[in-house]
Amino acid sequence: MTTRPFGARRYRPALPVGLALLLGMAATACDTGTGAAEPSPSKTTGIAKPDFGATTGNAYFDYAGKTSYTDGPGDLLGPHYSLRIDSIALTDHLTKLQAMRFVDTGSWKPPEYDTLKPAAGHRFLLIHAVGPKHNPALPDYKQNNAPPKKVKGSVRVGDTVVPLPDDLRRLALSKDSAGSATMLLSIPAKGTPLLQVKDAGRTQSLDLANGRRGTDAISAFYPVRSGKDCSTGALRQYPRTSTTLELSCDSLSLQPYAEDGGWAPKGKAWLTLSGTTMTAMQDIGGHPVPFGADLDVPKSFSLDIGNGTRVTAKGDALTGRPVAPGTNGLPGVAASTGPYGIRFPVPTDFRTGTLHFSPHGTFTLDGKHTAWSPSKSPEALRLTVK
């Protein structure tokens, strides 16, 4: 009598969602003569290899040993990822139909077994992920699509670390997504599984038995405090022309990590603003010329945080290639746009402060250097995060 053990391959993005991979089926004898305590095979039982694992987008989560978290879904959030787990299953078998969810039916024959069991000393862990409540902390990664080199995931059971069989992005769905994903791993049979995610050099863990974050959780992510009404600008006006410099703010938040600043020092956080810089020159005579700016951020931005303390900003704010007059539907206006991202070091308990903007840097008018002398100083802007 013979049996064919299952083995796993890594997920291939080109395959349809919901299909995982098998290394294949290899014939083995019932008694290998090694004395190993393998599960007893039969004509209807398949034995998985120790590294068996895959991911599926199949919506069904009907596995034996299923546990739903009584305190609600477990969330992990980092600079580049957001993850929500609402249930797991720990089981010693999969039915044929369940196993087929992790089989590439386009390349392999369906399993020949009615039941799939883990290798000796192992059990199956199935992790069910749903759409997270929040986007990743950094606005540039709101699609939850950080490359694998930025975010690494694993499951620790005692002293054993089991790498995830697929890219963590297979579990990190888009915010409020109606879909779900299930990741299957083969783990040691004894011990509590902990999901560990390393992002920007720091690891956070989630106890998969109850969905609770570990003591290594970074409190500033739960929640990430944010605000609105953070746009500002300056105006230089003459009898026939006017030149404006506007900062259209898309994001205001209090972050423990910034891409260009790393992790904030202990007791500090980064108050970050990002958006679009736009300069525009309007000529009532119909002869506008491009006006550009490359701001000296520390000299241009400061923030009063109370108790007589004012801090300066770090980052970049500049305009890009000039836009021809009329391109934006504004006849007689020549505009230039570009990105900006600035950050202030503030205490972790910061909630409100006053932003001051006084343009300093390099300015050009029709490609030639020019000075900036605003007709009116910009008004101070109150910033608040909640």
TrEMBL record:
Per the record, the domain of life is Bacteria
Keywords tagged on the record:
Signal
Cleaved signal peptide residues? 1-29
Signal as a keyword of this entry, yes or no, is yes
- UniProt xrefs under PROSITE patterns: PROKAR_LIPOPROTEIN
How is this protein named in the record? Lipoprotein
